[in-house]
């Protein structure tokens, strides 16, 4: 990638100005409010963002200030990040579900002077921590509801800030231009905090070069263009959302659509019909679960038709998608299936117009991945990290497989250390961890190589990267066989009844597992079977539920037994947890990754029971309710044995 990765546009504000000139009438951002889509062109957006930036100057925003942004995906919050950049400040988006303590840590660590909040709930969280964090000088809020009686001496509605910027534009125009012109490729573009599966989150400093070079390379790789449509619904604090909704959006000029609320996301997805779509595996799993639930409720004829054509799709759908030879008769059958089943199904999911869809963040179960590709949806996997500005590898069209994460993205170099850990180097490689030179030095070496923390290998014949698991989670069992928990967990999560799975077995004689049921899928089954239950806990321990989960575990064991490298990872015993694993309880990160150490400590007695041979165990667990109160759940959990299959064995050392 050349030094001049963005042409004559070395910053996001420069790309914004270019788009206002180049695509003045093309839709840039849309938002659904009160059931109606509102739209702003690139020219309109630039006018609004410049006025906002001048309003920030009126409030005293200085070069290098950190500006925290907290709320759900809304155009005005994306604009506040770009307006901050225009002022020479650094946007720091936070997870809107973050608790007061999590928010306090980030606000304190980055030294934020300004906080832009989506609504009253986020303002309240900031006020709660303001006594302890003395450097917050100005709070700006987007939604005025409930805000009338607050002390406004250091608080402003965002629309008032914009109005002040517009009114004083003669005063601020020259200063704003000077600050925008000072921005270079090496100016900081954004600071994003890692999800912190271990230890405290770290502030990842990304430059304009990191974001623009990566946005350009990834957009060209998949032929993204002005006029494409994306749905912005993932947390704004996540690097993927920043790349899609600001980086690639300003590079290509495509349109970013913000849904009305998380609850209406699926409806809004259908209305927009994106052409470029990203979702973590959890979303694709949930969509598939909903399809399967609906098919269980369908008439016998519809169910038979669905099963018949889905079997055909699994056999030839991916080949048709990849342009491989398929017989004329099969093509005809697939076309009929498309009229009857695949087309209506894609329409229901909102994926009819998708040209490129991606999943990442966690490995996706191969069965789930193949389901979408068999429908003709160009779903691909990418492998990335915050520290890489997302992209490390991508799957080229025609080379898409469920067992690899593709080839290095343009401009990325890969190498595998002797330990099996994956290292990369690229134009997107982060500048540093904020105020943390020790972690920076231990993650990124003097030559710019970054340790991913993941174990994997590069296939000799294809050049594709295969990720086995987190390097720290990959281990050996007591007899020396390889232990890779995520591989098994993803196979288990293919089943609609299973929401989450955590597998144990490092240095043990056998593998065991915790299972979380999916309340939507299992509750639907209970309703159809006239089984009454009063709580998640009661349903999770129902004998028929446990028997169903046992059949899923045993099916996974049969599949795993066929892999000589991982056949030792079959699950011998499992229990169904009495509560959902929850980020508020510290068991998952805000991006819904399992915190294994926390779970192992918190449920140590349950793990010992799995290995102790007992048939049940009584437990009490502390939980956090939505309003922050603590409570306890008491339950007696059933421990179940699952059949295992003699596998083709190969030692990990081989």
CATH topology of the largest domain: Rossmann fold
CATH class of the largest domain: Alpha Beta
Number of extended strands: 28
Rg: 25 Å
Mean pLDDT: 92
Q: Number of domains in the coordinates? A: 3
Fraction of helical residues: 25-40%
Q: Oligomerization state of this entry? A: single chain
- Provide a count of the helices: 21
Main beta sheet: 5 strands, parallel
How much beta, percentage-wise?
A: 15-25%
* Low-confidence spans: 649-654
Strand order of the largest sheet: 4-3-5-6-7
What would you give as the CATH superfamily of the largest domain? ANL, N-terminal domain
Return the CATH architecture of the largest domain. Answer: 3-Layer(aba) Sandwich
Tertiary shape = globular
Description:
- The chain folds into 3 domains: 12-210 and 239-260, ANL, N-terminal domain (Rossmann fold), CATH 3.40.50; 281-352 and 354-443 and 452-470, Luciferase, domain 3 (Roll), CATH 2.30.38; 475-641, GMP Synthetase, Chain A, domain 3 (2-Layer Sandwich).
- Helices cover 39% and strands 22% of the residues.
- Helix 4 crosses helix 5.
- The chain is globular.
- The two termini are 38 Å apart.
